[in-house]
Design a protein that fits this description.
By secondary structure, the protein is α/β, with parallel strands linked by helices. It has a single domain, classed as 3-Layer(aba) Sandwich (Collagenase (Catalytic Domain)). It contains 13 helices and twelve strands. The relative contact order is 0.15. Keywords: Hydrolase, Metal-binding, Metalloprotease, Protease, Zinc.
């Protein structure tokens, strides 16, 4: 099947008649429509078995979000996203929770990514240790404890005291969605306004060749990209966005950590119009702010890396360039209560542990900044 193009399908439009009335569209929507044929956004070739019903166009999303607003009139009007750190004390997890400096950076990024929403951290972290209502198991391969993600979200909801548009849990514990599956990086419930993201497979794993003194710092820095990628994807689901099958996009589904990490950080024109409809942001201004935020994160990573390299030059004379392993199979971004949505799931029998590839974490930010520069220039022209 050929790649989706504007000529044969216009998923960004409410109706095809909008093509004939292009001059009546808002300027940001006109730009999004033009960008469907731009080299900035690469169309996807639908995989085997993918039908048009699997793709959530703008019209279909508007119906879904309209039903959500009808069912939850108060929550849908709120402009607050709450990030809830989740702590878990266990010998299996040396790092019990995400460090505050990372959480603050993450909140700042999300407030720009979802311009129009206020993003706050609900401190102190919610402790999950010893909660009897949360089902646990020991993973047969890693021999580490895992928590059932559905029980975690229920417990989060019962303990939350803040009225918000959505509540997002952040944990370093490995999660699993059902007894039949391996693990998940995140799961979101659109109707409940709840999501939880797990980074246990990143923060509590040993990096190749690292010295003990550099371990914690390197893990924190090394996973900054993973944090913002997974969080932005899961919160996107809480705005009713399902997995995108039109372009390379932040909302693409993924079945391996390699896919989850290397996919774009930004939304394609189809998904961007959906988010723009809710938040009414200035599209170009949002891109400018995203560039500033990515530059800040890159500078923070490079400075921390430089400091870490100097302080550990005796224990590790070779270059301490940050790298990420990118081949672990995952269940990422599974969505509940969202029509036409499918979670990215990998059966435990399909695990492949070979073919690992190391990638410098700073390269992802540099490529994103370069893409934003091109995007801003195109918008201004």
């Amino acid at each position: 099947m050929a790649a989706v193009t504007r000529a044969d399908f216009a998923p960004i439009l409410l109706h095809r008649k909008e093509l004939r009335r292009r001059d009546r569209l808002e300027p940001p929507v006109q730009w999004m429509l033009d960008m469907t044929g731009s080299s900035l956004f690469t169309p996807l070739v639908p995989g085997p078995g993918t039908t048009i019903l699997d793709r959530q166009n703008y019209q279909r999303w508007k119906v879904i979000f309209g039903s959500y607003k009808f069912a939850h009139p108060k929550r849908s009007k709120r402009r607050l996203i709450v990030l809830q750190p989740l702590a878990y004390t266990s010998p299996d997890y040396p790092m019990a929770q995400v460090e505050t400096v990372l959480l603050e950076s993450l909140a700042g990024f999300c407030s720009v990514y979802f311009t129009g929403m206020e993003v706050v951290l609900d401190q102190p972290p919610l402790e999950l240790s010893g909660v009897k209502k949360i089902t646990k198991r020991v993973h047969r391969t890693t021999q580490r404890e895992q928590l059932l993600v559905g029980d975690v979200t229920k417990y989060m909801k019962s303990q939350s005291q803040i009225k918000s548009f959505c509540l997002v849990g952040i944990t370093l514990v490995d999660l699993y969605p059902s007894p039949y599956w391996n693990f998940t990086l995140g799961q979101a419930s659109f109707s409940d306004g709840l999501a939880v993201c797990s980074f246990g497979r990143h923060f509590n794993s040993q990096l190749d060749g690292e010295s003990p003194a550099a371990s914690d710092l390197k893990k924190q820095i090394n996973n900054m990209w993973v944090l913002i990628r997974v969080i932005s994807h899961e919160i996107g689901h809480l705005f009713g966005l399902t997995h995108c099958f039109y372009f390379n996009c932040s909302m693409n589904e993924s079945s391996t950590i390699d896919e989850a990490i290397t996919q774009p950080l930004f939304l394609c024109p189809v998904c961007l119009r959906k988010l723009h409809k809710v938040l009414k942001f200035d599209v170009c201004r949002r891109y400018v702010l995203l560039r500033e935020e990515c530059s800040k994160l890159l500078q923070f990573i490079e400075e921390a890396l430089k400091t870490d390299s100097v302080s550990n030059e005796d224990s590790k004379p070779e270059d301490t360039e940050l790298t990420m392993k990118t081949s672990d199979p995952i269940i990422d971004g599974s969505v509940t209560d969202c029509p036409t949505a499918n979670g990215d799931i990998t059966n435990e029998e399909e695990i492949e542990q070979e073919g690992r590839e190391s990638v410098c974490v700073t390269e992802y930010f540099k490529k994103s900044i370069q893409w934003l520069d091109e995007c801003i220039a195109t918008f201004n022209n």
